[in-house]
Every structure is written in structure tokens, then in C-alpha cells.
């Protein structure tokens, strides 16, 4: 087992990474000052993993469509009807949708209760379970409702990665590649040279990088925005597709490539990186381009927009991401 600490003063917490952790989760949960735990999971994760926890489960339909106000309200009312109190806590079990939804639920029900993240997908283990971002989608755009709410613990059981369908594994790999592009080129070298990727190593490497970034900028006011590389265009693709045409990773993959093409067309470099990522994304069956029809309206409502400006993450070479603030109109000039 590997342990990484997210250093946030009184809100600090450990990330535990390794095989078989779900089967021993009761040891970690019992050590926290919580009367009883409730598991919030999508129906797929609940059927696969919740039995080993032996806790009450509040399941919801799998898919990005469940990150909505209606499902959030239903979960609140079900839990309150069962006597949930501020002495209790929530376990977010599953992928990114479960983490975002259950995290927002924990941060808002009864004005906040303890939260433990137990990510079971590659995407959630390397990215969304760490850092305290929670969110719900609206028809107007992705993650437009949300709050920063840090967990007390992240427990990433790498055995779960062996049950993932190929498409879900590939979706998570997009976030792994993103991490390599903006901050840790060794990740890209590993993916380019290893006959079979070392998934536990990749989870640890990505979590170490993200934990360091979050410790410097918990609330996304500065360097943490680098983690949005590919997401400005990616979130627009997701919303334009009705949140079910593409996985988050597929949209981020195409978003990274679109950002690099935008950089090149605006004299900011990145052609070598664009050429480097193309075969890597294709190897994982990730798109290098998606239709832009309808996405412009969602890009204009990006939550990182400030007036007519938007801060974007760019990368001229691997491992060296940086931030730029540009006119929103320039991003709408999509080729």
C-alpha cells in the first residue's frame, strides 16, 4: 500500500493506494469520528463493490445524467427519511459521477457531513477523487453547480481497475495522459514504452502530482487551473453531446488536441506535442477530434469565464503546462 498526503492544514487527508483496500475499509472508517456511514454509489458500483463494505447503500442510475438536481434531491430525501444526522458520514463509491454527486451531497446536506472517497475507476483514482471538487450538471453546462469540499480520506483499491470495461479504462487514461502533458513527462514515457501500463504506478504518480498542486492552490485560483488542460473544450463537447454521447475522458482527449491545435494556429507552439499525443490517444481508442456543432454555446458558459476573458491551460512541451488569459472570442475560432 502507498500513502500520499494532501497537505491542507486542518483539512489535510491521506490518499491510500493499493490492492484489497475495499475489503479492509472498515478499519479506516472505524478510525474516523463518525457514528454511521452511508454509501452513495451508482447501481453498477453498488452491485460490484458495496457488499464488501457491509454498509447501507443509496444507489442511483449509472451515467453522467445522474449528476443532476433531481437525483441529488432524491438522495437527500431518502437519507433524511432514514434518520441521517450530522453525526453520520457519506462514502462516495464508484467513478467520477459518484464522487462528484456524493461529494456535493456530503458538502451540503445538513450543511456538511464527513466524506470518504472510494474511487473504483481509473479516472476517479487518478483525478476526480482528489482535491475536493464536487459538482452537478445543468442543461446549460457541466459542473455549473458545486462546491469545494475535501474528503477525510481517499481509498483507491487498485484491484477494481481489473473489472473496468475497455472504454472506461481508456476514459481514465485520458486524465493520465493529461497529467503527463502538464506536469510529469515520465508518465508519457511510461505509456509510450511499456508493453503493459503499470496502473498502480500511474495512479500513484498522478495522485502525487495532483496532491502537490492542490496543496498550493486548494480553490482553483491559480496553478490548480493547469489541471483543466483539455477541459475547456472537453466540457463543451460533453454538454453538446447531451452528456451521454462521449465519456468524460473521450471529451478531454479531443479537448486536449483541440487546445493544441488552437495554440499552433495562434503562434503559441505545441506542434511536436500534438504529433506526440496523436498515436498515444489512438492506441487507447480515444478521439483526437470531435464535432464542434453546438459546442460553442456551452464554451461561452464555461465556469472559468470572467467577463469576456477565460483562463486556459496550454502546453508547448510535455511536463510544462502554463496558464494564459485570453479573449473568449478567440477560442470560438474553431477550425
Automatic annotation (TrEMBL):
Involved pathway(s): Metabolic intermediate biosynthesis; chorismate biosynthesis; chorismate from D-erythrose 4-phosphate and phosphoenolpyruvate: step 2/7
The keyword Nucleotide-binding appears for this protein: yes
One GO location term (cellular component): cytoplasm
Pfam families, per the entry: DHQ_synthase (PF01761), DHQS_C (PF24621)
GO biological process: amino acid biosynthetic process; aromatic amino acid family biosynthetic process; chorismate biosynthetic process
Annotated positions binding NAD(+): 96-100, 120-121, 133, 142, 160-163
Class in the EC hierarchy, top level: lyase
Principal location: cytoplasm
Binding residues for Zn(2+): 175, 231, 248
Enzyme Commission designation: 4.2.3.4
Cellular localisation: Cytoplasm
GO MF term (any one): nucleotide binding
Function text: Catalyzes the conversion of 3-deoxy-D-arabino-heptulosonate 7-phosphate (DAHP) to dehydroquinate (DHQ).
HAMAP family with a match to the protein in the record: DHQ_synthase (MF_00110)
Protein name listed in UniProt: 3-dehydroquinate synthase
Organism: Brotocaccenecus cirricatena
Biological classification of the source: Bacteria, Bacillati, Bacillota, Clostridia, Eubacteriales
Amino acid at each position: 500500500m502507498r500513502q500520499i498526503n494532501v497537505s491542507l492544514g486542518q483539512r489535510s487527508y491521506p490518499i491510500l493506494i493499493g490492492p484489497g483496500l475495499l475489503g479492509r475499509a472498515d478499519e479506516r472508517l472505524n478510525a474516523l469520528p463518525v457514528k454511521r456511514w452511508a454509501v452513495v454509489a451508482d447501481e453498477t458500483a453498488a452491485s460490484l463493490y458495496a457488499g464488501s463494505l457491509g454498509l447501507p447503500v443509496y444507489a442511483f442510475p449509472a451515467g453522467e445524467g445522474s449528476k443532476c438536481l433531481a437525483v441529488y434531491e432524491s438522495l437527500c430525501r431518502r437519507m433524511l427519511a432514514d434518520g441521517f444526522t450530522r453525526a453520520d458520514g457519506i462514502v462516495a463509491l464508484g467513478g467520477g459521477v459518484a464522487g462528484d454527486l456524493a461529494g456535493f451531497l456530503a458538502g451540503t446536506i445538513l450543511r456538511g457531513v464527513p466524506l470518504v472517497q472510494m474511487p473504483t475507476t481509473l479516472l476517479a483514482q487518478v483525478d476526480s477523487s482528489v482535491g475536493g471538487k464536487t459538482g452537478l450538471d445543468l442543461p446549460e453546462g457541466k459542473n455549473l453547480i458545486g462546491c469545494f469540499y475535501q474528503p477525510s480520506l481517499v481509498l483507491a483499491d487498485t484491484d477494481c481497475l481489473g473489472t473496468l470495461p475497455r472504454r472506461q479504462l481508456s476514459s481514465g487514461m485520458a486524465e493520465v495522459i493529461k497529467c503527463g502533458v502538464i506536469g510529469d513527462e515520465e508518465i508519457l514515457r511510461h505509456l509510450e514504452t511499456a508493453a503493459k501500463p503499470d496502473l498502480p504506478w500511474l495512479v500513484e504518480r498522478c495522485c502525487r502530482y495532483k496532491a502537490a498542486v492542490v496543496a498550493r492552490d486548494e480553490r482553483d485560483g491559480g496553478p490548480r487551473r493547469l489541471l483543466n488542460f483539455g477541459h475547456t473544450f472537453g466540457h463543451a463537447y460533453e454538454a453538446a453531446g447531451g452528456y451521454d454521447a462521449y465519456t468524460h475522458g473521450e471529451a478531454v482527449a479531443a479537448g486536449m488536441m483541440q487546445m493544441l491545435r488552437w495554440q499552433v494556429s495562434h503562434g503559441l507552439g505545441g506542434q511536436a506535442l500534438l504529433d506526440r499525443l496523436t498515436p498515444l490517444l489512438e492506441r487507447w481508442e480515444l478521439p483526437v477530434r470531435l464535432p464542434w456543432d453546438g459546442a460553442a454555446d456551452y464554451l461561452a458558459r464555461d465556469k472559468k469565464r470572467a467577463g469576456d476573458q477565460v483562463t486556459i491551460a496550454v502546453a508547448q512541451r510535455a511536463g510544462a503546462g502554463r496558464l494564459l488569459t485570453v479573449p473568449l472570442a478567440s477560442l470560438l475560432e474553431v477550425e
